[in-house]
Design a protein that fits this description.
CATH architecture of one domain in chain A: Sandwich
Largest interface: A-B, 110 and 110 residues
Radius of gyration of chain A: 26 Å
Number of helices of chain A: 11
Shape of chain A: globular
Strand content of chain A: 15-25%
Distance between the termini of chain A: 59 Å
Oligomer: homodimer
CATH class of one domain in chain A: Mainly Beta
CATH topology of one domain in chain A: Immunoglobulin-like
Number of strands of chain A: 35
CATH superfamily of one domain in chain A: Golgi alpha-mannosidase II
């Protein structure tokens, strides 16, 4: 391929590479910073903010090495670049027309991005076209490699689109006209999107760093990405319990009653989320306790802790004039206001010090467990404009792409890790290299099917997604939503406006309680899944395409039909199978939702799959139908052959009570299986210093178990029950 | 206000102005190129393509002078700029929070743009956010001025949004929390969009030219814009007759039969549109006659002309390898293909010569009347990427913004004006300064209500919109769509895929024929309305907000209701009254559409308004209900007091037959009225040399008429009937 450089008069120094093709593949541009990981630096990469600059932890080089040898996925020289006269920098990555491209962060409708143009920008995903709360510029190819555009700028990506006039592999032209001999006016077999064999990414920046991850499988590619970005986050055990956010202006008394009501209804509770009313002022915010609502925050927080309930505080970053630190913060804020509040520039150390000192003093030091960081995503009509300026010199664009990450990393590092205490919280925007950040994303959209797709999409880009339940039109919807919630990275009910409780719909209170209890019983399995995220980069909840044996070809293809009023280009449609996902190594989750509220189809991958509840054999590489009735209103869960699932023998009211509790082991399939249970102190960062252990448990088909524990802290009790779940 | 400049290290020379506030208002930056028109040059404006560079005609300075004196609408020093570190150039125009902002081209849902962020880019309007087939960067304020950002780049505009931290006029903060004394969790009277008093426009460019037009009324602002952009277009008279596009692969025989069928059904026809099948190949195109379908194009074209029917040829610009001029064009094409066709760079003279010579030889010289230029708009997945390069050095971005205009201007100038023959055609993208271009816009969307809004929106930005009819689900819809079509800049049925005819729905064939006949009878009034567009800048079809006495406050405001699942910010909604519009000086059109298919409400502006058909007094400054039944299935038309409407005494089968035909005059109201009828040769550019005349006709309430004709060519016959339409 021919390289094509057009240098603008004013930007002669912008690009370090030149027109000589070989230059791109010399040591000057290429590095291999970790096993199976290659880095290409184009132009002045130091002039631009990279997502990896904001990663919470350093690359886990040893773990990357353990993944084994890997080879570069294509010819380096096949990568080419253009620097346009108007300052845009493009990199072209080869990609066969028949490869499937997945990823690009929190895409909520589809996870496949072949034949799409995406403008990756932090914004509400409903705007479409690549805008989303977490537009991670990372894609994974079905051929087993991943590409990460490591730049905190608006990035536009043309996936398998854009034929170049000088390319040698363009398909032949097809006449859209029918042959003259043909009667009638229907056009020929022409297609609106000709095959193209590249991904072209363009950014208006001085430099661009591209990272390429190799892998034998797509999962291995994801693992490499996560490990390079610091490893997946390991939340405190309490973060994996049940969360409930109270209405926006609840006071202390109402909060205490809410907690008591949970106990009265026998519903587990680990975290109570306070919405804006805890502050003296919101939109813009003061971050200071409203003492008429909360007369003694410390006593309240400690009382809650003594009941095993932690507090999570809502905030958005926009600071009111009434905040005590406003005057000191003012010079460190950007040129524009959001909801009339100043926008602190947390790239500035003084700004970080001001907010973290205040937060530590007023919240964390009295026992607050973490934050929900709202509205760091968009829309444009709310946030600072693209021409806003910030004291650190960071562009408005890069601030938009990273504000959510900046907040996450600042809180993680300066408020919690500094004090050797883990946190787990929520944030409404994230981006590349976020794997190690202990935050889940959420959205103001409320489509259950999209919420389920979000779980899969998040797993492809080092982020976590919470399909929070806010309310429902009826008991069936409420149950289905809470079931999905309980099989997600954060099991949360967000009733800030509805005041809904788990027992709001009486007709489903029992199965709602049952699924929350099931989540609690599965804490050993769930916690170990997160440990695998941290240690091996394996996401705890995963898109089916990462599961070996899943036939993605089962996605439904709807051929396009010409209609001048609705479809003049006869465009087809692909309905992807993203309504089921993997949880941990062994469990497949297929929630009921929307029209599929009590009957739905499930695609079983290759291998033998069993019903989680009964052990009944369900099939192998086939599509089955399941009903709520046969499952007694429980969420459909399937376990694959050769799996061992550790659970608490019974549910607990919060994660504190899980410590030391005995285990039930379930064996699915007819073979001896092994499980490696992770244990640590559940709440400090000592695990980063090796203070953890694995208990390797083996179970034979006749229920005999043996166990080997490594050195380190114990967490759960003994295995007291074994169930052979095979019928 | 304080000016804030941040200079990037690499762009020291980019901005001609400096940090001294007074500089922006000195003669260096400000010019007054025409009466009531001010120009502000920021940075290196010559480095960027301006829309006015592509205007088809020069500013009509004399006509601008005639509009009378005007004063600059605000303090020049209130305009400020920012040049950001990442190369963005922002200009901030003062704008009170209570001003209403209209315009920005073909916005199809609303014409008001207050409190919106728009990213103006040529694309399909369905993508939203400012993307549209004609994203004219021009807005009009209810305070009587207009601002035109004269740059062919993607432009982002923040309308009355974005409070600056150092602004002195920010509203006070409002606490979203309710007071602690308040029980329950409902938030306070906070609003999600605080008042802001500026329009901020930002472009990633080396320079930006801003034009400011003054006016006593919003209409006068629009007139100034149009006159500065060369005056509105004056189509040939035949362009205002009835158009019909045949199915995509019709051959000569089928076309001849179609024309005969129109005659048989007694339906007027001026233009027959041929879709892709006329070419040897389409998508990509050859631009050469498919001689198996059209064995003798010249004879066919001439035969059609002899029947008074002109041909319009579909094309898109993307050139096939099979085109005879392909090899010569190849070096003048951009780096990327569209549908595998090369994309000629028509900024290059050789490319223009190649295509216009071929088009003239093969089409225009044998009698073809014009073109439909398709697919010059988007989507991104079809057109060239933002990093494509073009031989002229024009950026991909500027090419995207102007390709439709480039084509229009090239055809207008080199194919038609050069040969002193007018044309009228269709194009799927246009942009700023397009007033003088004889093309109407259309879209693949097919919402009737949006099509009606499009007529209004177009009038605010020097463009024309065709609400073409393609098909319908039933006779009522068909009738309603064709009625709208007949009261628009181009009365066209586009049956390329459906094969629909005016008589397809037998139950409505009579009223369909009637409204097409009414269009033909109104040709004298319609043609004069276009002459007013050309001479005075008054759009022939206009948004109601340009009509004095229209109470825009009648728009429906729906207050926002908090709902955590659907509306968490309690955002309100404004339903604008854009389902009616003005036609010429006197007629208001209020089509039936969608749910309002046979009964609808109409807002009558201040003044007395009469039914067009019966002369019945309908009201003054009030909202009325009209039904299809009372109107005998005719489109609702209202005429204002003191109006004289000239019509042909009877319909004609095409515009050729209108020449020399006698006139009927209708007087509405109880006062003596005057009308100035425009006449010229209907098809050459001699009118630009003053070869036209006005016939000033006066009619008293008792029906006495007097007439004074200027020098110049005659067009219509005598006034032989006078009707006093006042009951």
């Amino acid at each position: 391929m021919k390289l094509f450089f057009l240098f603008a008069g004013l930007s002669l120094s912008l690009l370090a590479v030149n027109g000589d093709k070989s230059d791109l593949t010399t040591a000057n541009n290429w590095q291999e910073p970790a096993a199976g990981t290659w880095k290409l630096e184009l132009g002045e990469t130091d002039a631009e903010l990279r997502y990896t600059d904001l990663a919470a932890e350093k690359p886990r080089l040893e773990a990357l090495k353990k993944l084994g040898p890997a080879k570069f996925p294509f010819t380096k020289s096949a990568i080419s670049t253009i620097k346009t006269a108007d300052g845009k920098l493009m990199v072209r990555i080869p990609c066969d027309a028949d490869e499937k491209i997945y990823g690009f962060g929190l895409q909520m409708k589809n996870i496949k991005s072949s034949k799409k143009v995406l403008e990756l920008k932090v914004d509400h995903w409903k705007l479409g076209g690549g805008k989303t709360h977490a537009p991670v510029p990372f894609y994974i190819s079905s051929k087993g490699y991943g590409v990460f555009f490591n730049t905190a700028r608006y990035l536009k990506v043309y996936n398998q689109l854009g034929n170049r006039k000088d390319a040698l592999d363009n398909p032949p032209e097809v006449d859209r006209n029918p042959p003259p001999s043909q009667k009638g006016s229907q056009p020929g077999p022409w297609q609106a999107l000709p095959a193209a064999s590249a991904v072209e990414a363009v950014v208006d920046a001085q430099g661009l760093e591209v990272l390429i991850f190799s892998g034998d499988t797509m999962l291995e590619v994801v693992q490499r990405y996560n490990l390079y970005c610091g490893g997946g986050t390991l939340p405190p055990l309490w973060g994996l319990g049940f969360w409930h956010r109270v209405p926006a202006a609840f006071n202390e008394e109402e909060c205490r009653k809410e907690v008591a009501d949970f106990a009265k209804h026998d519903i587990p509770l680990d975290v109570l989320g306070l919405e804006p009313g805890w502050m003296t002022k919101s939109y813009p915010c003061t971050f200071e306790w409203q003492t008429e609502r909360f007369p003694d925050p410390k006593k309240f927080t400690q009382d809650m802790l003594s009941q095993g309930v932690r507090l999570n505080l809502w905030e958005n970053p926009y600071m009111s004039k009434d905040a005590k630190i406003y005057k000191d913060m003012y010079p460190h804020a950007g040129s524009h206001l959001v909801w009339l509040g100043i926008v602190p520039d947390y790239n500035v150390q003084e700004a970080r010090d001001l907010i973290t000192e205040q937060h530590y003093r007023d919240h964390v030091s009295i026992g607050v467990s973490g934050y929900k960081v709202d509205e760091v995503d968009g829309y444009d009509h709310w946030l600072w404009p693209d021409h806003a300026t910030f004291p650190s010199g960071t562009s408005a664009e890069s601030m938009r792409q990273t504000y959510g990450m900046l907040m996450q990393k600042m809180f993680y590092t300066d408020l919690f890790k500094k004090h050797n205490t883990r946190t787990y919280g929520l944030v409404r925007s994230s981006n590349g290299a976020a794997s190690a950040l202990p935050y889940v994303l959420y959205s103001d959209s409320y489509s259950h099917s999209e919420y389920i797709t979000g779980i899969s999409a998040a797993s492809l880009g080092g982020i976590l997604w919470s399909p929070e339940a806010r309310g429902a039109r009826n008991g069936r919807e409420w149950l289905n939503r809470i079931q999905t919630v309980c099989f997600s990275p954060m099991a949360m009910l967000n009733a800030w406006a509805t005041g809904a409780k788990p027992w709001t719909f009486k007709d489903v209170t029992d199965p709602v309680r049952e699924v929350i209890n099931l989540r609690m019983r599965l804490l050993p399995y769930l916690y170990t899944s997160f440990a695998d995220y941290h240690l091996k980069g394996i996401p705890p909840f995963r898109a089916m395409i990462l599961e070996q044996g899943f036939d993605e070809g089962q996605s439904k293809v709807i051929a396009g039909k010409l209609d001048s009023e609705t479809n003049p280009y006869a465009m087809g449609q692909i309905i992807e199978k993203t309504d089921q996902y993997m949880f941990g190594p062994s469990i497949m989750v297929a929630p009921f939702y929307e029209e599929q509220h009590s009957v739905r189809s499930v695609r079983l991958p290759a291998g033998n799959w069993y019903c989680f509840y009964t052990g009944k054999f369900m099939g192998n590489n086939k599509t089955i139908k399941v009903t709520a009735k046969e499952l007694k209103d429980r969420i459909p869960l399937f376990v694959k052959e050769g799996s061992l699932i550790p659970m608490l023998t019974k549910s607990v009211n919060n994660s504190r009570d899980a410590v030391g509790k005995d285990l039930e082991l379930r064996l699915y399939g007819k073979k001896t299986a092994t499980y490696s249970l992770y244990e640590d102190d559940t709440k400090t960062f000592d695990y980063l210093k090796g203070q953890y252990r694995h208990r390797t448990i083996t179970c034979t088909p006749d229920g005999k178990i043996s166990e080997q524990a490594g050195k380190g802290p114990a967490l759960f009790g003994k295995v007291t029950q074994v169930k052979i779940m095979t019928k």
